[in-house]
Design goal:
Blueprint (H helix, E strand, L loop, with lengths): L1 H31 L9 H23 L4 H14 L3 H21 L7 H6 L4 E6 L2 E6 L8 E4 L8 E6 L2 E4 L1 H4 L5 E3 L4 E2 L4 E2 L4 E7 L5 H11 L10 H4 L1 H19 L2 H10 L3 H20 L2 E3 L4 H5 L4 E4 L1 H5 E12 L6 H12 L5 H11 L9 E6 L3 E6 L2 E6 L1 H6 L6 H12 L3 E7 L2 E12 L3 H10 L3 E5 L4 H11 L3 E3 L4 H13 L4 E5 L5 H6 L2 E5 L5 H6 L2 E3 L7 H34 L5 H20 L8
């Protein structure tokens, strides 16, 4: 059904382009008398371009008493035809339809993505009853039932782990870049993925109450209050119609010349006014595209110009979203850092854990060969165990060391805690039952991020960090970027509530994120921008724009471009309205006839198009 709608939409646009091309040729034939036709060729433009305008105006008036710019255009069209000024009527119809087509081209297809989010909903659950195990549809799970989740499976409902150790990928809910180790007594959320160990859990929230279902409802309702920006020509249409009709009627009564009244209607046709916004938007979208932004909503740049705050997700947006080794500390004098890395890389070589992979990547950069490991054992939710060069190696978290009766000295704990305070994740190592040291890993900040934040502040917007990561990691990132306002441990609804509160206080927010958990906030925000390279499809579908190449350094340019675009639109509107009023005075005094009047005020349309075109290559020096 969706593909059919898209085909119909594209088919309608191709038809409009064809009609405009034929009408343009017809107007050239009419004005230069190129072909000996039995009728004025301008009638082709009147039929192809004018009749749709008149029909739309009549339908709007009759069904909703909706007075738009096309009402005045229709009056001018009919009046021009009645007094025999066919070319003026065709020209006005052509210009108005051209403006309408440009406006259509600025409007993106309807946003999608709910379907993809729904597909994340777990389909089945594994219920344990005594010694029996049966698989049922996830929606049939009841509160209190015992479930088993195997490695690689999606958690079917919200619950609490009863037995087992594991690591859970919670990115769908929190955006965290690393799996979280879980054990008995820990909570797990539906939609998250069990990575390594099997576990049994008790169902606590099921069906519509589960976390993934709540997020789907958030995404569905998030943009309900985001009203579309109404075109200025339509907002001013009622006054334009009243002024134009009043001036035309008074002139007719005062002079007795119907031609002057029709000329007033023709010159007051808001052609330039209609073109003022879409031409500027089209040019600005072209500029944004050249700098890596895919604008999916036609009015997104208009919205961006009024934004006062930009909220950032951390992982995958300001950072790369992958852990990297930042430092290491050896507790044993006889064990160098290089040997510590070698033991860790050897032990983690067969591991699928992101921390282990990061250590292996780091070690391979040294060019040395990773030592062979024997008796490898994966310990879900704890780490790994292996024998390397005859030595028993443990690599994992603090719980693993405690289980194996390996204890840290106070000084060693303090060293690790200092790294933890800076937002690092710690991998501890033990050799032959003795604490040997640790390796600190953290998400890597994008190198262009500090300058980007500085430029955003200079552009007049306030950056805010809104992340699902823990306070230490969020605080460290914010400090390095000079971001004063930080909100950590945010779930999807927390981000949504923050944005909603800001916008109730008339502080329009632009949200920038990459994860599925950011989708509700991206939809709710005044403007949503998704990372198109690393971001999820659902986040991109929820956003108004996508940063195709993830080059966040271009964000300040986009903000400034939106403000420049709005200034260009205001210049266009001021010029077109001024020209119209001057043309009215000339029409009242009889200086202009309908054809000359149409040419004069369409010269304003040409100016508007040329002025907007400068936005294509604009960049602040």
């Amino acid at each position: 059904m969706k593909k059919l709608e898209e085909l119909l939409e594209w088919g309608g646009m191709k038809r409009d382009i064809l009609f405009l091309a034929v009408s343009g040729i017809a107007l050239l034939i009419s004005i230069f008398d190129l072909l000996p036709l039995p009728f004025d060729a301008a009638w082709i433009a009147i039929i192809f371009c004018g009749i749709p305008i008149v029909l739309e105006a009549v339908i709007g008036l009759v069904t909703a008493f909706d007075i738009k710019a096309d009402v005045l255009v229709s009056i001018a069209l009919i009046a021009s035809v009645l007094i025999g000024e066919d070319f003026a009527a065709g020209e006005v119809a052509f210009i108005m339809q051209l403006g309408g087509l440009l406006e259509e081209l600025t409007v993106a297809r309807a946003r999608a993505g709910i379907e993809k989010l729904v597909h994340l909903t777990p389909r089945t659950a594994r219920i344990i009853a005594g010694t029996e195990e049966r698989i049922v549809p996830a929606e049939q799970v009841r509160v209190g039932e015992l479930l088993r989740v195997l490695p690689g499976e999606t958690v079917p409902v919200d619950g609490v782990i009863v037995s087992g150790q594991t690591s859970i990928n919670q990115a769908v809910m929190t955006g965290e870049s690393l799996p979280v180790d879980k054990g008995a007594g820990d909570e797990v959320s539906s939609g998250t993925v069990n990575q390594f160990g099997a576990f049994d859990m008790k169902a606590v929230k099921v069906g519509e109450d589960s976390s993934i279902q709540r997020m789907i409802r958030l995404v569905q309702s998030a943009d309900a209050g985001k009203a579309k920006i109404v075109g200025l020509a339509d907002r001013w249409a009622t006054w334009i119609v009243v002024i134009a009709l009043t001036a035309a009627v008074i002139t007719w009564f005062a002079t007795g010349q119907l031609l002057r009244s029709v000329t007033i209607l023709v010159v007051f046709c808001p052609c330039a006014l209609v073109l003022a916004t879409p031409t500027a938007i089209m040019a600005a979208i072209g500029n944004a595209t050249r700098h890596g932004f895919l604008v999916r909503e036609g009015d997104a740049l208009e919205r961006l110009a009024s934004v006062s705050r930009v909220t950032f997700d951390k992982t995958g947006t300001l950072t790369y979203g992958t852990p990297e080794v930042t430092e290491a500390e050896s507790f044993l004098p006889e064990l160098s850092k290089e040997e510590l890395y070698a033991y860790a890389a050897g032990a983690e070589l067969r591991s699928e854990h992101p921390l282990g992979k990061a250590v292996i990547r780091f070690y391979r950069k040294s060019g040395r060969e990773i030592p062979e490991a024997e008796q490898f054992e994966m310990l879900p939710g704890r780490g790994v165990s292996a024998v390397i060069s005859g030595k028993q190696i443990l690599a994992g978290n603090l719980e693993l060391l405690k289980e194996k009766a390996v204890f840290l000295k106070d000084q060693e704990k303090k060293q690790a805690e200092e790294c933890t305070k800076r937002g690092c994740t710690i991998m501890y190592l033990a050799v032959d039952g003795q604490a040997a040291g640790f390796i600190a890993l953290s998400d890597t900040l994008r190198p262009e991020a500090p300058d980007m934040i500085k430029e955003l502040k200079a552009a007049g917007v306030t950056p805010v960090l809104l992340t699902g990561d823990h306070g230490n990691a969020a605080g460290e990132t914010a400090a390095r970027l000079s971001i004063e306002e930080v909100h950590a441990d945010c779930r999807p609804e927390d981000k949504l509530n923050y944005i909603d509160q800001c916008q109730k206080e008339k502080k329009n927010v632009c949200m920038i994120g990459d994860g599925i958990n950011d989708a509700p906030a991206l939809k709710k925000a005044w403007v949503g921008i998704a990372m198109g390279g690393t971001g999820s499809d659902i986040a991109v579908d929820a956003a108004d724009m996508a940063l195709v190449n993830d080059e966040i350094r271009e964000l300040p340019h986009l903000v400034r471009l939106s403000k420049r675009m709005m200034r260009t639109i205001r210049y266009n509107l001021t010029f077109s309205m001024t020209l119209n009023f001057i043309a009215i005075i000339l029409a009242i005094t009889g200086v202009l006839n309908p054809v000359v009047g149409a040419l004069v005020h369409n010269a304003g349309s040409v100016f508007v198009i040329l002025n907007s075109a400068f936005l294509l290559t604009w960049r602040r020096k």
